[in-house]
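User: I'm putting together a small comparison set for a docking exercise, and I want a reference complex before I start. The sequence is below, and the ligand is zinc ion. Could you produce the 3D structure with the ligand included, as structure tokens?
Assistant: Of course. I'll restate your input first, then give the structure tokens for the complex.
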Amino acid sequence: MNMPSASPPLATTALVAVLLACSSSATGLEDPDDDGGITLPDAPAQDISSLLQYFADDLDISVDGDFIVIRSDGVPDHDSPYFDSGDPRYTPYDGSNPNFRLNPNRIAAVQTTYRIPRVPQESTNKEATPLGPIGVAVNGVPIYNQYAGPNQPLTFEIDSFDQFNGHPQQAGQYHYHIEPLSITGTMGNDALIGVLLDGFPVYGPYEDGRLVTNADLDAYHGHFGPTEHFPDGIYHYHVTAEDPYINGNGFFGVAGTRSN
Ligand SMILES: [Zn+2]
Ligand SMILES: [Zn+2]
């Protein structure tokens, strides 16, 4: 009776050799059409599923094929003067804006479903962001763009931002147009803030210990580079202190959808 050989069959050895050859040629691969490194290399595709662990536990999160689906009622996980005064989460305004004025709206649960590409891709025609949610913060609060209405700057609306930089709109949907101070205050000023509908992540106003300004960013308010979660580099947005704050002239990537 023949005993099995201790050494691997020839076919397996050949397969391993082929795999090794593939991996070594892949790592050393150069684009033969490369024009000399003037342009950035093509951004490697990155699966953003690994970011989901940073989102609040009470959100309803799933992966549906090529999309991440996040469902949230948008109610903040922090106190606000925009809760009804009888609500235990009500707290008076204690921020630094002497012109603060409470708007007439109060926080209500507004269910929103975000369908976000799992592997974000740059868009060839950069789509303008809509009014309403353009992304979702890690605490489930919607992120809005830099406008109070169609092409209206936030100039006056800023005075109604509470001490965490959010406020509710007419339907009670609380949201951030600028830096969410509860997130950067607890997670750090370089922390992951959330993701926009195109799947590209949003980080706080610091990177590698340095304040990021609009001058560091492109027209969409992001740039390509390594982050804590993507050491090989990914396009990402940053919150900055100046208009347009979170996103600029539209989505860098192909945007997913949001619905109620
Ligand atoms: Zn607003
Ligand atoms: Zn950056």
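Residues 105 and 170 are 6 Å apart (CA to CA). The mean pLDDT is 88.
User: Thanks, that's exactly what I needed.
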